[in-house]
Design goal:
Layout: H1 2-20, H2 41-44, H3 46-57, E1 74-75, H4 76-79, H5 102-110, H6 112-116, E2 131-136, H7 138-146, H8 152-160, E3 172-180, E4 191-194, E5 209-220, E6 227-233, E7 245-246, E8 251-252, E9 255-256, E10 269-270, H9 272-280, E11 290-296, H10 324-329, E12 332-336, E13 344-346, H11 364-367, E14 379-380, H12 386-389
Antiparallel strand pairs: 1-2, 2-3, 3-5, 4-5, 5-6, 6-11, 7-9, 8-10, 12-13, 12-14
The protein binds heme C.
Length: 401
């Protein structure tokens, strides 16, 4: 209302300008900036956007030593434990829950014939204990709670609803992988102390370990198909193997070619401007040892060639075919009748029969059956694979919260 009045006033004054001896209030319209001149960083400079996110989410917080923002987010290991009760926002750093890489476990399961076949086994990751965690920020977490996505029936119900599952633009999810490091390694890693879970019926319990972050996936719903970025610790021996690395914003050189031999390591640096931004944001200097391997915002390049991006740790064994956005487009769910009993909660396979990632444009037949109108075979769950795996079957009626 106030704006409208001001505009009317301004127009009025401008009209009076010559009479009152004043300059016109606004220049001629051809001098106004074109609406298309406004840059959207996530799209026009996806590498910079990846670092903008990195600087935000790795800020120190709270009283816990070395706690960063994402330590306080919703932990997948906790969020989906009780299908009958909504998860509670942690809001503080809690004991870390690590598990073996689910992706690598699934690959072994889904490509079992490949691993059982005679001859050299396909590359299986062996980079120390695969220790992984997955977390979601407040915007994503609240969406899960408000839409009942922490249990299977809720996922299917929302996926069937007219808008489907659609996270808000502020949602961010991360996946982090750690390895055991030594005291001497500490300055080069974002590190933490980790207490492995107790082993039942064992007199000697596992001692505390020092763990260092080796891989960090970050995905942000700032774009409808999400913005995808992956970071690695600079000493990862296979960092740019097979597919190279590309970071036009932060890395020297911006383009790293893959070594002819695997696991030989890479020498790169961060630009001083980026290091200065890290310092200004209060980040621990150890973060200067991380590199953006790449960012991905589309299924293909402008000529229709699939875009490829994979982390040497998390996507080890299928880096050359890895496409974050394509594989995650296959994150799906469907109830299949289990013959009278509880329905089976199913999804598209994560890997193709060769144990590799799908890449390029998603195929309608993944999601739709034949016919008009095409019946859904699998509902997309908005690119988050955890909604295919983590939710359990609710056993109390939905109105009892
Ligand atoms: C071949 C399939 C595949 C590819 C390629 C892939 N992912 Fe994933 N991703 C998964 C699966 C399966 C999970 C769920 C299991 C888990 O938590 O590891 C997952 C989990 C995640 C999560 C946690 C949120 C979620 O989906 O539940 C993030 C964030 C993530 N991936 C980012 C990435 C990024 C970034 C890339 C590319 C650099 C990538 N992924 C490539 C299969 C894939």
């Amino acid at each position: 209302m106030r704006t409208v009045l001001l505009v009317i006033l301004a127009v009025g004054l401008a009209g009076l300008g010559p009479t009152l001896g004043r300059q016109p209030a606004a220049g001629p319209p051809e001098h106004a900036p074109e609406p298309s001149a406004a840059k959207i960083t996530a799209v026009n400079d996806p590498d910079k956007f990846a670092w903008d996110l990195f600087l935000e989410i790795n800020r120190p917080v709270g009283a816990e030593p070395r706690a960063v923002r994402w330590d306080e987010w919703g932990d997948q290991a906790v969020m989906y434990t009780d299908p009958n009760a909504p998860p509670v926002w942690p809001g503080a750093k809690k004991a870390r829950n690590l598990r073996p890489s689910r992706q690598h476990e699934l690959r072994r399961l889904q490509s079992a014939p490949l691993f059982a076949a005679p001859g050299p086994a396909p590359s299986v990751p062996d980079r120390g204990p695969d220790s992984e965690e997955v977390r979601m920020n407040r915007a994503g977490f609240d969406y899960v709670v408000q839409n009942g996505l922490w249990y299977q029936q809720g996922v299917i119900k929302q996926a069937r609803a007219p808008g489907g599952i659609k996270f808000p633009t502020g949602a961010i999810s991360i996946k982090a992988l750690w390895k055991v490091i030594t005291e001497a390694d500490k300055p080069r890693y974002h590190w933490d102390e980790y207490q492995p879970p107790p082993v039942p019926n064992q007199p000697n319990q596992p001692p505390k370990q020092i763990i260092g972050l080796i891989a960090l996936h970050v995905t942000s719903k700032v774009l409808p198909n999400w913005h995808w970025a992956t970071f690695e610790q600079e000493d990862n021996p296979a960092f740019a193997d097979l597919i190279g690395a590309h970071d036009s914003y932060g890395m020297i050189p911006a383009d790293v070619k893959p070594n002819p031999q695997p696991d030989k390591g890479y020498k790169t640096a961060l630009k001083p401007e980026l290091l200065a931004r890290m310092k200004a944001a209060g980040l621990d200097p150890a973060w200067g040892h991380y590199r953006l391997k790449g960012a991905q915002i589309d299924f293909t390049d402008a000529t229709g060639r699939p875009t490829i991006l994979g982390n040497s740790i998390t996507e080890d064994g299928f880096v050359a075919t890895s496409s974050c956005v394509t594989c995650h487009a296959r994150a799906t769910a469907m109830f299949q009748s289990g013959g009278g009993g509880r329905p089976a909660f199913t999804h598209l396979p994560v890997f193709n029969p060769a144990g590799q990632s799908d890449n390029g444009t998603p195929k309608p037949e993944w999601f739709w059956g034949p016919g008009t109108p095409a019946p859904p075979i699998f509902y997309q769950v908005d690119f988050l694979w955890e909604l295919s795996f983590a939710p359990k079957y609710r056993t109390v009626p939905e109105d009892t919260k």
